[in-house]
Design brief:
This protein is α+β, with helices and mostly antiparallel strands. It has a domain at about 5-120: Beta Polymerase, domain 2. Helix content is about 35%, strand content about 20%. The chain is built from six helices and six strands, in the order αββαβββααβαα. The protein has a six-stranded mixed sheet. β3 (about 75) and β4 form a beta hairpin. α1 packs across α2 (about 50-65).
């Protein structure tokens, strides 16, 4: 029996927090509850290497055990570049960059609704800074140009002249 949407969402949040803690890249969450009867959320993450994938999977398992969540199964093959951790309501796919590009699960599940990871984890996004509109110039450009030309034509102060040296006879 599938858990409620709120508990599935909370579980997806736990997974994202654990993966972010271990520096997972390109973290994405897809709500597939309308498309799948097997799971509510897919969490997709990229690890830089096979050892990084193992570290991500281990951290994820620790976080799920700490949340008293049963892991249905874990599937990985040595040097495959893809690890799946099934927590029933949330299925986590960990990829190397090459395998992430190859399988492109985001496009396979293109009908799923993408969940904003920052929003899911409660990270506030910076508010946009309002753009300041410069005040209109009081003087038209032509008038300003005339004023600048007049200033340039103003007589410069005469330089002090040195008296010519007289030759002694």
């Amino acid at each position: 029996m599938k858990a409620t949407s709120a508990s599935s969402r909370a579980l997806a949040k736990i997974c994202c927090a654990a993966l972010a803690e271990k520096k997972a890249e390109d973290l994405r969450v897809l709500d597939v509850s309308a498309q799948s009867s097997l799971t509510d959320y897919l969490v997709l993450a990229t690890g830089g290497s096979e050892p990084h994938l193992r570290a991500l999977a281990l951290e994820l398992k620790h976080a799920l055990y700490a949340a008293n969540t049963r892991i249905v199964g874990t599937e990985t093959r040595e040097e495959s570049g893809w690890t799946v951790v099934d927590a029933f309501d949330v299925m986590v796919h960990l990829f190397t960059p090459e395998q992430r590009d190859r399988y492109a699960l985001e496009t396979l599940w293109k009908d799923a609704r993408e969940v904003d990871v920052d929003e899911l984890m409660g990270i506030a996004k910076p508010k946009p800074v309002p753009r300041l509109v410069p005040k209109a110039k009081a003087k038209p450009k032509a008038k300003a140009k005339r004023k600048a030309k007049a200033k340039a034509k103003a007589k410069p102060k005469p330089k002090a002249r040195k008296a010519p040296k007289q030759k002694s006879r």
